[in-house]
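From the pipeline queue, job 12 of 40. The input is one protein chain; the requested action is below.

Action: predict structure.
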Amino acid sequence: MTKYAFYPGCVMPTEQYAYEVSIREVLPLLNIDLVDVEGFSCCGEPMKSMNQLMTLYLSARNLALAEKQNLDLFVPCPMCHLSLSECQRVMESNTEMRDRVNSMLASEDLQYNGSIDVVHTVNLLHDHIGTEEIKKHVKKSLSGLKIATHYGCHLIRPSEVGRPVDSENPQKMETILKVLGAEPMDYPEKLDCCGAMLSANHPESALTKTGQKLQKVQEQGFDVFVDVCPWCHRMFDSKQVKAGETVAVKLEIPVMYLTQLLGLALGVKKEKLGLELNLSPVDKLKLGDK
């Protein structure tokens, strides 16, 4: 078993439980041992526009806690992953800021050393575990399932920070899904935003973005929409009905986390993957039955 410190962030433990449930159920089947580290806090990204030093400090603190365990950090939330990655970039390039942050961390007997990797769900599965290993564990083929993938903004940009997937033509999820027997297909709106970051100030615009993307997916005949971000999932799954009302279209698109679909292919029963927590019509797929 390969061990990773598990950083769940804020949205998964407080709202998007299905992502965490499916992660904890599936990854041990692929020889990944998730270690819960005491003391993790917010990554700081939501406060970045108000206090950049606070964001940097919070990210560095979480990284230092994982370093203290000598474990690489598994971060399923793309926003958290970006915040922690940006912190690593700043701390490596700015020694003055690194010393300043470390002086703040010293009050908790912590220190950022830059000794660990930060991995997201997509590159953990694709790059670290590998598709050949995943293929060995597949028990239920997803043959015939036409899938639209959604990577989200934080997973592909900004590229200079170093993101887990290609910024213009991400294909890692597609490669994983093909191993499961599914048929992932590109579509023109693949890289469009979910709208989540507009929710606080422009909720109608946010729902319009969500609705427009799902409308195009529905029109192109996809069976299921797959994502890897709790913020995006909130929009496409939890707010699908409202998004449809906003763009005057009845939306009935099953939306699932990649780890939920992976779990079904690995033979995990659907009740163990949090599918009852999905608010989109996932029952239409008739997957994961006895």
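Job complete. The first helix runs from residue 11 to 14.
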